[in-house]
Amino acid sequence: MVGTKAIGRLLRLAGVGPGDRTESMGNPEFPYVCRGCGTAYDVQYHVCPECGGFSVDRPPGVGAD
C-alpha cells in the first residue's frame, strides 16, 4: 500500500519509525515485534505499519515480570 510506505518513511525520518529487524530480540529499546514481518518497535501498535499485520506483541520471555 503506497500510503503505508510513505507513512513509514516519514516516521523513520522523524526518528520514531520502526526499528531495525536485527534489533528485535531481547533489546529493551524495541520490546515489541510484529509476528508477521519481524519488525521491532518501541511502542505496541494495533496494526503493524510495515506489513499491516495485527500481531505486534512482546516476544515470549521479554519483559516478563
List keywords for this structure.
alpha+beta; 65 residues; flat; 3-stranded antiparallel beta sheet
Outline the low-pLDDT stretches. 20-25
Looking at how many chains there are and whether they match, the oligomeric state comes to single chain
Strand count? 3
Main sheet characteristics? 3 strands, antiparallel
What is the helix fraction of residues, given as a range? 10-25%
Q: Into which percentage range does the β-strand content fall? A: 5-15%
Annotation field: number of helices: 1
Q: Widest sheet: strand order?
A: 2-1-3
From the alpha carbons, calculate the radius of gyration and give it in angstroms. Answer: 11 Å
Structural class: alpha+beta
Could you give the distance between the termini?
38 Å
Shape: flat
**Total tally of structural domains:** 1
Write down the overall mean pLDDT: 74
**What is the H-and-E element order?**
HEEE
Write structural notes for this entry:
This protein is of the alpha+beta class and 65 residues long. The chain has one domain (2-57). The protein has one helix spanning 2-14, and strands at 32-34, 40-41, 56-57. It has a 3-stranded antiparallel β-sheet with strand order 2-1-3, with no helix packed on it. Strand 1 (32-34) and strand 2 form a beta hairpin. The N and C termini lie far apart (38 Å).
SSE blueprint:
Layout: H1 2-14, E1 32-34, E2 40-41, E3 56-57
Antiparallel strand pairs: 1-2, 1-3
Structure summary:
The chain has one helix spanning 2-14; strands at 32-34, 40-41, 56-57. It is an alpha+beta fold.
